[in-house]
Amino acid sequence: MIINFENQQPLIEGVSINDLIEKIETPFYVYSQKKITESFNRINIFNKTDIFYSVKANSNQAILTLMKKLGAGADVVSIGELKRAIEAGFDKNKIIFEGVGKSQTDLEFAINNNIRQINIESFEEMGLINSLGKKLNKNIDIGVRINPDIKANTQDKISTGRKKDKFGISIELIDEILTLVKKYNNLNLVGLSCHVGSQIHEINVFEKVFNKMKKTTDILKKNNIKIKFLDLGGGFGVTYNQEKKLDLNAISNLIDKTFRNEEYNISIEPGRFLVANAGILVTKVITSKKNSDINFLITDAGMQTFIRPALYNAFHKIIGLNNNNKKDIYTVAGPICESSDIFANSIELPKQKSGDFLAICDVGAYAFVMASNYNTICLPPEILINEKNYSIIRKKENISEIIKKDIIPDWL
Ligand code: LLP
Questions:
Q1: Would you list the DSSP string of 211-242?
Q2: Considering only CA atoms, which of 79, 4, 65, 73 is closest in space to residue 36?
Q3: Ligand 1 neighbours (beta carbon < 6 A)
Q4: Whole-angstrom Cα distance, residue 300 to residue 355?
Q5: In the prediction, which pLDDT does 131 show?
Q6: What are the residues whose beta carbons fall under 8 Å from the beta carbon of 410, sequence distance 6 or more?
Q7: N or C: which end of the chain has fewer CB within 10 A?
Q8: 14-51 pLDDT per residue, tens
Q9: pLDDT at position 403, please?
């Protein structure tokens, strides 16, 4: 937890959250640079393994700049994320572009920018890149994302490596991949990649993935294809509730054991692990009310600010920022006109009243990036804290900006 209480004052790295509340209108996201750095250092223990930060988890330019400073590359999944990574100054040789639906424009942009590698996810995409290579008179380095048909034992909606999932090319089609690699003259197969899901805690899932990927590289070797890069994806689980801390030493030993004698360079693409536990969302209780026997607290943050609980039923700890010793049981809900706009059901909190503040915890990943303007509500500001200093790293939108984007046709 990044918040600690001193004399009942909530602090992050010595910065008073109450001071922030006085200056900045809620709801807002706050991230701790120290916590991100700690998480980066915790996972940066695998031998000969490069870290490519999965930009989708939190793509603020300040966070990207921090990741670059820490030594990460960038794993991007859209032209927007690619432009963000370039703008943040990532070495183009440390950018991997993937995603199951890249358009021709996206691919041309990536090719023209000479990034390290484009991971393809279908035979059609392979053909398209080859024809773009021909057109541009270039040989293009690609990786192939393999669908290894492995169950990640995580939430169904964030599982990506089973046969039935839309991602990657089935491992069973390896012969066809090889045939096409030989046929297409403007492609170099330089890498393999995979990603079987997010928030994975079971070591044996990582073990299965590593073994399957090793076997696949062996098949390539037999066919005289020596890859340069093996990308093992992200998925490293964090603690939101009672989950045990991920045993990174065990994963490190597995990487050593499986790939000890291999010459290719290994990479991982953590997103959540680096940022999830480093963020909180500060929100104000707008109204308290009782329906049936339920004490509702209605907050100024809603599912449009932070959608993980509504979308995945995800647990996020909520704490009261006031210092009331009396407790009560509350259901914390947002202001949106949807019954799924609930952050937590029947949780114990210090007694609350309208105007009090709550912190929703562990929201550094897949939180702001998934926020929307639903109900015409502005995207919230984001703040980064570093050793007693804070900086607003994204301004709050204003409503007229949102309205101005709409165009009324002249026949109305
Ligand atoms: N690499 C690829 C190809 C991915 O698709 C993802 C995440 C990652 C790396 C990073 O995974 P991580 O280390 O963060 O688990 N919105 C969902 C999570 C979706 C993850 C999508 N892919 C959530 O809020 O739980």
A1: HHHHHHHHHHHHTT---SEEE----B---SSS
A2: 65
A3: 54, 57, 75, 98, 158, 160, 195, 198-199, 233-236, 269-273, 308, 312, 366
A4: 10
A5: 96
A6: none
A7: C
A8: 999 999 999 999 999 999 999 999 999 999 999 889 99
A9: 98
